[in-house]
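Reply to dn_fold:

You asked what the input looked like. This is it:
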Amino acid sequence: MLRIFRQIALWEAISTICLFFIAMPLKYLAGIPEAVKIAGSIHGFFVVIFVVMLIMSTVEYKWPILKAIKYFLASLIPIFGFWVELDLKKEIEGKRQKS
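and this is what came back:
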């Protein structure tokens, strides 16, 4: 489950970057509002899946609530979403070494 969550965290971060730095300039500078509709919908999809996976992982792996809050808050800031993906990668590798 952590591998899937890691991929969702990565795509959520990428979709945030695309929304803020590609779609919004296209809307406001080039007059193409459809860019935000499309990128916003894709981003919204990944946000919902991210939150569902965050809740499922928190329950499954018995994470402290502060970790879940930290991941959620990090996902709200465009660049910090990539940190969540890297942190999950470390956790996956840590679980692999324990096996």
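The two ends are 16 Å apart (CA to CA).
Hope that clears it up.
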